Amino acid sequence: MFDAVIIGAGAAGMSCALVLGSGLQKPFAKGKKVALIAHQKSSHLQTALFNNVLGLAPGTTGESILENGKTQLKTLYPAIEQIENEKVLEVSKSNNHFTITTNKNTYTSKIVVVAVGYTNLFTIEGLNKYIEAHPRAATQKNRIWLKNTDHLVEENLYVAGTLAGWRSQFAIASGSGAHVATDILTLWNKGKHIKVHDKIDEA
Ligand SMILES: Cc1cc2nc3c(=O)[nH]c(=O)nc-3n(C[C@H](O)[C@H](O)[C@H](O)COP(=O)(O)OP(=O)(O)OC[C@H]3O[C@@H](n4cnc5c(N)ncnc54)[C@H](O)[C@@H]3O)c2cc1C
């Protein structure tokens, strides 16, 4: 049983995983089991080129972010399990936990974060009831969101990134994933607000 599973390893999913990974070093989160279902084949990052994102060198490709993001996560926060080459087909809830069925395996988790992007090609059974037309995208594009309040779809079920209803900009999607991570850390810290900052050691 995982404590949290993040579905989708694009901008929002990987940002969520990095912040959660850094938070696992806090005493209240010690021993929590977290996984990222690191499917990337249908990420909008595949074809993106970034010149307008603070902190990214102009000309950075989305493709390089997909690869480097997984390496960063593995190197810095190896406690986060990365599940590669699996696509989620269904998410269902019973007895206060979620069952996540992929094309290869079944996992259980207390918390699920859905970060699979906002296209209407969404095919995860069990989540269809939350789908509505995206509130911040051109109507003719048929984008969708999972109806939520502050990223929460229902108890312990979060959505992040463009699928949460945000406009499609890298920084917004990443920020949304980071936001969800701090919400989960705050939940694990019994409601006391949490952020995770590193700082330069003073000699
Ligand atoms: C061509 C292009 C150019 C862009 N240029 C810019 C730019 O210049 N500046 C800027 O700020 N933004 C730009 N963007 C937008 C930016 O890339 C997106 O806003 C951002 O990637 C959205 O992040 P996300 O996490 O919501 O979705 P994505 O990054 O698309 O990630 C979704 C993830 O979910 C995975 N997934 C999907 N279905 C499943 C499933 N069933 N099971 C498991 N995993 C699944 C996908 O494989 C993917 O990894 C551009 C986008 C495109 C397409």
UniProtKB/TrEMBL annotation:
Gene Ontology molecular-function annotations: oxidoreductase activity
All residue ranges annotated as the FAD/NAD(P)-binding domain in the record: 2-159
Keyword Transmembrane: yes
Cross-referenced SUPFAM superfamilies: FAD/NAD(P)-binding domain (SSF51905)
Signal sequence interval, chain numbering: none
Family matches, as Pfam families: Pyr_redox_2
Keyword Coiled coil: no
Keyword terms, alphabetized: Membrane, Transmembrane, Transmembrane helix
Taxonomy, superkingdom: Bacteria
Transmembrane segments: 6-24
Protein name per Swiss-Prot or TrEMBL: Pyridine nucleotide-disulfide oxidoreductase
